[in-house]
Amino acid sequence: MSAPHVGSADATAARVDPPGAGEPLLAVRDLAVSFPTESGAIRAVDGVSLDLAAGELLALVGGSGCGKSVTALTVMGLTRPQGARTEGSVHYRGRELLDASEDELRRVRGAEIAMVFQDPLSSLNPVLRVGDQIAEQILAHEDVTRAQARERAVELLGRVGIPAAARRAEGFPYELSGGMRQRAMIAMALSCGPRLLIADEPTTALDVTVQAQILDLIRELRDETGAGVLLITHDFGVVAEMADRVAVMDAGRIVEQAPVEEVFAAPRHPRTRALLDAVPRLDDPLPARRPPAEGEPVLALDGLEVAFPVRRRLLRRDSDLTVRAVDGVTLAVRPGETLGLVGESGSGKTTLARAAVRLIEPTGGTVSFAGRDITAASRRELQPLRSELQIVFQDPFGSLNPRKRVADIVGLPLRLHGLSKRDSAARVATLLERVGLEPEHADRWPHEFSGGQRQRIGIARALALSPRLVVLDEPVSALDVSVQTQIVDLLDELQRELGLAYLFVAHDLSVVRQVSDRVAVMYLGKLMEVAPVAELYERPVHPYTAALLAAIPVPDPSRRDRRVRGVAPSGEPPSPTDPPRGCVFHPRCPRATDVCREVVPPLAAHSDGHLAACHHPLTAAS
Amino acid sequence: MTRFVVRRLAQMLVVLFAVSVLTFLIFNVIPNGDPAVRMAGKTPTESQVEAIRADWGFDDSLPVQYVTTMEKVLGGSAISYFSQLNVRDQIVEGLPRTLSLAVGAAVLWMLAGVALGLLAALRAGRLSDRLLTVLALVGVSLPVFWLGALASYYLGFKAGWFPNGGYVPLTEDPLDWAHHLVLPWTVLAILFIGFYSRVLRSNVLDTMSEDYVRTARAKGLSERQVLLRHVLRNSLIPIVTLWGLDFGAVVAGGAILTETVFDLQGVGQYAAEAVGQLDVPPVLAVTMFGAFFIVVLSTVVDIVYAILDPRIRLT
Prior knowledge:
heterodimer, A: alpha/beta, 6-stranded mixed β-sheet, 22 strands, B: mainly alpha, 13 helices
């Protein structure tokens, strides 16, 4: 298993170290990592050199597949089980880790170098108690009793801001919210007082308000412990918020490495510039859009409700519960317009999107399509409408049948609506060209395409029957920023040419701002605010909208300290099975008063087309 | 939990009723199944047959016959048409034998299956893995009656290492009990070992690529701890279900071949003989017992599963 090791670290270290700096905590020199596969070795990292000092926060940035995660994993020797072959050197406090024995590495892992991963749910063992998983790490490195280790675990959970830590330590990972799980992962990483913390996309799986809290926590801990932090991310907003220095990676190499202000002010490498340009910013000028559409709405939801029954738990006698995923939402999408629908996870936005096309049955209210009530329409009655009402799903990997060719995926709706095989083939070719693919692609299988290309296939399928409304459920959230831009541009172009109306569902407020004419904000199944896009982003009326906007990391390091802290809501959204009384946002709202705790605020007009449900709306004066 | 058990019990009643009706009906539509004719001997007169019919109630309507038979089966007073022996006594007699066989074999196949499956997963793609794959295939393909006969002939009769079939109660002489059962245990287990080792191997390989295994390594756990606490534990959970159900099937008479080859006189063998003679009361009784046992065991398995994996909810 030992990796071949070439090159002298000491000779190169002297050359690259900045003058005056002592021995860095971590010095990576000419690191190359390749993985053997059936069709030859794949070189994932190709000559990476970087230094990290104690107390420093270095951001390693790049698109997916650029080798940033492999670099981090290799530092800890975690690519060894995959049979990685490595060259170069990884020096940690004067020790070479690349060819260290498994036993030596084991003593460094968790004790001196700790890692926080992207998805805290899959990174924690689902069947072991949270506290035990932390205690396990302490026991692996320190001579303490099991009871002492458990006690430390509870302490650590408290320290990373988990309330009722003793009780949480007894719980299982699935019982924690996403943010709490990531806090638990961080508690685990801190458990043995590491000098180096590697955080691999630690907030990518989290909601924006929770992301802000986790980033604050990492920064606090860095200041407190003086540990060096290697932060891996694709998000330049996070970089600007957090980093002292930035290393930009592309195709296995570091193309630029500089202090954070320099990278943002004067990016030198074209790849850095391209990555920065692709980041949607809230202070970008709004794209010019057509005047608001007139006429009867294509889609109208009136008091829409969707409730799901909740199953009872073993050994616990709960009464019959329901989750009101969508709770009385009234919205309309006009012909040719894009209505953006934003909300954090659990806000009900995806349920609403699916109920709007009757993939989920509403339990209350009405859905009207082109003026016709389709809430209770039978399958047979819906069939002709299906051609005008299409949906594109979030996951371009999961939503295309891997055993069907592209021609069949895109052509199925055509065949279902009675086109002949030949006509459908011709139409598929046109559609593929329309979404920027080649007609020849029709004969290929989904796995032969990249994520962005797959999403194009999904869009082609949705367009096959010339719909009037396309519901886009997080269409770009699984894609890299540069690919996101391409897809957003494509959607925009299609809308202009075909006069489509979009219901664009997303959690990313910056993307929604780019594409929407109007934006609706949901929280815990309720509609909080609806307004024209410029109005919503410049003069949000609902404190929740304001909080969401404040939580977005601004891709500008010079504004880091000017960001208003404390506006981002504390805590996390409560469980939808047990929503708060009154205004659902009141437990996290800085403006909440007694009336908010008792009375549900109605959706009221604040200016033309600007509605919000709040007892204490933010006005221009406040 | 209480609701879950109550619901399962209610389902069990439905299952038992359906099983009993089906079994009863099947034996009534089988050609040459008229028990009176078969009981009356080789050249019966019509009046003898009529007498037996009246005596045993075979001239009643089917529903009436079903009810009276079931009353006897459930009350423990059912009597075999042919041996005239009490069915319950016969099952009680055979049960320890079948249980001895099932428990020993189940422990053996679980341990060996897990050990071999883990070994194959750790050596995935190498020669030893391929060898184990072939072995597992051979094990699954060997017919029990053939393997059993071979073992019994060479290791029992010729070499004299093991007794030639038969059963000695555990309470009488534990050593002799085990001595009699070594061959049946092994022969029955071999089939399952092949199967279990394959399932475990693929579970282990799946689990090894889980994120939490990477986390376990990143914590600095030794490879042994990673393997035992994180990989093996999670890979075993689905196997437990399989194990419970297979064990149930063996106890419920599923090891007919093994029992017959080694002449253990267990429940399976009893049922097989009764089926051969179209002897309805023992068949009904064994089927009911088997169905009952399997439903109970699958309930237990579900509860154990929910304890092992806290994400599972019982409904």
